[in-house]
Amino acid sequence: MMKSSAAGSPFIIDTQLSGYGSHSRYVRLKCGIRVYMDVPAGICPNCGHTHTELPDFIRPYKHYESSVIQEVVNGKSTDICEADESTMKRWKREHQRMAPHVETLLRTVLSASVTSY
């Protein structure tokens, strides 16, 4: 059994997944190297879907290291990133589109944690 942050979805699922196996996934690191790794996958007993347990430095559906994407979104140097200009523009658009939603979620969590004390 493994505990999942369910990288196959944008939300964290706090449940035990039954072991299913693993699959190969590649990620481009900050230094530009393309690394292949086996990532574990498991079946959720609640929904019956297979979820992948990604390491913290990989975002779901992305092939670049999280820190690279974050630096591009924050407007820092894009010289370290080998992604196409269109890819970096898409990351920025996605961030701008999701920012209000994420802010609302964070405010909700914060207010819930403050009222529970």
TrEMBL record:
Residues 15-91 form the DUF6431 domain. InterPro entries: DUF6431. It comes from the Bacteria. This is DUF6431 domain-containing protein. It comes from Selenomonas ruminis. The lineage of its organism: Bacteria, Bacillati, Bacillota, Negativicutes, Selenomonadales.
